[in-house]
Design a protein that fits this description.
Layout (H helix, E strand, L loop, with lengths): L6 H6 L30 H10 L16 H14 L3 E5 L2 H12 L5 E5 L5 H10 L5 E5 L3 H7 L4 E7 L11 H10 L3 E5 L17 E5 L13 E5 L2 H14 L5 H11 L2 H20 L4 E5 L9 H7 L6 E6 L3 H10 L4 E2 L9 E4 L2 H4 L11 E6 L5 H17 L1
Parallel strand pairs: 2-3, 2-4, 4-5, 5-6, 10-11
Antiparallel strand pairs: 1-7, 6-7, 8-9, 9-12, 11-12
The structure holds pyridoxal-5'-phosphate.
The site of pyridoxal-5'-phosphate (PLP) has 14 residues, from helix 4.
Length: 398
C-alpha cells in the first residue's frame, strides 16, 4: 500500500491473504496458519531459507516458533501503524517490554525510566534487571530531572506517554532531543496510542512497544505484545534476541488480533467520544477534584496532546474527594463497569488505584483523594453516566 493513503485506508489493506498463483483467487482474511514444523520441498529450498535467516528484512522461516503467514500479516499491520520497518511479536505486552530491554541492555548499563511508566516495569527491574547488573533510575520525565540523573553509563531512556494511571503527556520530541544529545536509545511504551493516534517513531524515538492485548486486539480475549523499530542495526539486534529468547505466539491469538485490529479506528473513535461525554458529566460533580484525560481541555497535557496525537481513546482517571472506604462503595455500586485490570476492549472497566502505586508518581499531587481509572467502552454514554451518578450518590451516603 502506498503511504499517501490515510492510515484508516492502509490499515484495511495491509496483511490480506495473497492470491493463489493458479486460481488467482484468495479469501480476504489470512487463514490461521498453525505450525511447529516447516516442511521444505528439497534441501536446496531449506538451504536458501537458512541463508536468508540472517537478514531480518527477509523474514525467512525454517521453524514454526516465529510463525508463518498469519504472524507476518499482523507484523505488517504493526509496521504500518508505527511507521516501522520491523515488528516482532511477543506473547504479552510485558513480554514485549522484557524483549526490548533485555535485547538492548548489557550488564553495567544504566537506564532512565519515567516514573509514570507501567507499574510492572518496576517489578521487572526488581527481579531481573537488578540481578543482571543493569542499573535503573525511576524519575520524572522532565528535562531537568533527566539531566540531573543521566550518568556516563546511561544507555537508554524508557518512557510511556501518556503515562499509566494518570495519563501524563510527555514532550516526546524534546525527550528525543535530550536522548540524542546523550547518545541514548529512546524507547517508549505506546500502548495508549497503539500506533493509531500516536506515532513515537515519527517523533524521534527509536523503538515503540505496544501491548496488543489492549486496543489492537480490542475484545479482551487474548494476550499479545509487539516491538517496533525502523533502524537496521536496531532491527537486527532485536530480531536476533527475539529468536534467541524463544518467544512464540499462538497463531489463533495472532489471527484474533488481526481480526480485531481492522476495527481499531472505529472502536477507538467511539470510545474516545464516549470518554469525553463522561468527562463532561464528571466535571460538574462535586466529588470530582480532577480529571486525567489528555483530550479533556482542562488536562495540563492537552496542548501536547493536540500537537502530537491524532486522536484519543476511552481511558481516563478521576480523582475523587472520597475516602478509600467511600471509593470502594462507589466502585462496588457500578453495574455497567467491570472491576478488573486491562483496557482497550469493547466494554467499560473500573480500577480503584492502590494509593501505594501512586506514591512513586511525581505527577500525582500526593493527596488523600481516591483515584479511580475508567476505561470507557462502546456502551451508550448516557447509560454509563447514569451508572456513575447512582454509584457516586451511593458513595456519598455510605
Ligand atoms: C497492559 C499494559 C502492558 C502489558 O501488557 P500485557 O499484555 O498485559 O502484558 C504494558 N504497558 C501498558 C501501558 C499497559 O497498559
Amino acid at each position: 500500500m502506498s503511504s499517501d493513503h490515510a492510515l484508516d485506508t492502509t490499515l484495511q489493506h495491509t496483511g490480506l491473504a495473497p492470491f493463489d498463483a493458479r486460481t488467482e483467487s484468495a479469501p480476504v482474511a489470512v487463514p490461521v496458519m498453525r505450525t511447529s514444523t516447516v516442511r521444505f520441498r528439497n534441501l536446496d529450498a531449506l538451504d536458501r531459507a537458512q541463508a536468508a535467516k540472517a537478514d531480518p528484512a527477509q523474514r525467512s522461516i525454517t521453524y514454526g516458533r516465529s510463525g508463518m503467514d498469519t504472524h507476518a500479516a499482523l507484523e505488517s499491520v504493526f509496521c504500518q501503524l508505527e511507521s516501522a520497518t520491523q515488528a516482532l511479536l511477543a506473547p504479552s505486552g510485558m513480554a514485549a517490554i522484557s524483549l526490548g530491554l533485555l535485547s538492548l541492555l548489557d550488564t553495567g548499563d544504566h537506564v532512565l525510566v519515567a516514573d509514570s511508566a507501567y507499574g510492572p516495569v518496576r517489578y521487572l527491574e526488581k527481579t531481573v534487571l537488578r540481578r543482571l547488573g543493569i542499573q535503573v533510575t525511576f524519575c520524572a520525565a522532565s528535562l531537568e530531572d533527566l539531566e540531573r540523573h543521566v550518568q556516563p553509563n546511561t544507555r537508554m531512556l524508557y518512557v510511556e506517554s501518556p503515562g499509566s494511571l494518570l495519563m501524563q503527556m510527555l514532550d516526546m520530541p524534546a525527550l528525543a532531543q535530550f536522548g540524542r544529545r546523550h547518545d541514548l536509545l529512546l524507547v517508549t511504551d505506546n500502548t495508549w496510542g497503539s500506533g493509531y493516534i500516536y506515532r513515537p517513531l515519527e517523533l524521534g524515538f527509536d523503538m515503540s512497544i505496544v501491548a496488543g492485548t489492549k486496543y489492537v486486539a480490542g475484545h479482551s480475549d487474548l494476550m499479545l505484545g509487539a516491538v517496533m523499530s525502523a533502524e537496521p542495526a536496531l532491527n537486527k539486534r532485536l530480531h536476533d534476541n527475539h529468536y534467541a529468547l524463544g518467544f512464540s505466539i499462538s497463531a489463533d491469538d495472532v489471527w484474533l488480533a488481526l481480526r480485531g485490529v481492522r476495527t481499531l479506528p472505529i472502536r477507538m473513535r467511539e470510545s474516545a467520544a464516549n470518554a469525553l461525554k463522561v468527562c463532561e458529566f464528571l466535571a460538574v460533580r462535586p466529588e470530582v477534584t480532577r480529571i486525567y484525560h489528555p483530550a479533556w481541555p482542562q488536562d495540563p497535557g492537552h496542548a501536547l496532546w493536540q500537537r502530537d496525537c491524532t486522536g484519543s481513546n476511552g481511558l481516563l482517571s478521576v480523582q475523587l474527594r472520597l475516602t478509600q472506604a467511600q471509593a470502594r462503595v462507589f466502585v462496588d455500586a457500578l453495574t455497567l463497569f467491570g472491576i478488573g485490570f486491562s483496557w482497550g476492549g469493547f466494554e467499560s472497566l473500573v480500577q480503584l488505584v492502590d494509593p501505594g502505586l501512586l506514591r512513586g508518581h511525581s505527577y500525582w499531587p500526593q493527596t488523600e483523594d481516591a483515584l479511580v481509572r475508567l476505561h470507557i467502552g462502546l456502551e451508550s454514554a448516557q447509560d454509563l453516566c447514569a451508572d456513575l451518578a447512582q454509584a457516586l450518590d451511593k458513595a456519598a451516603r455510605g
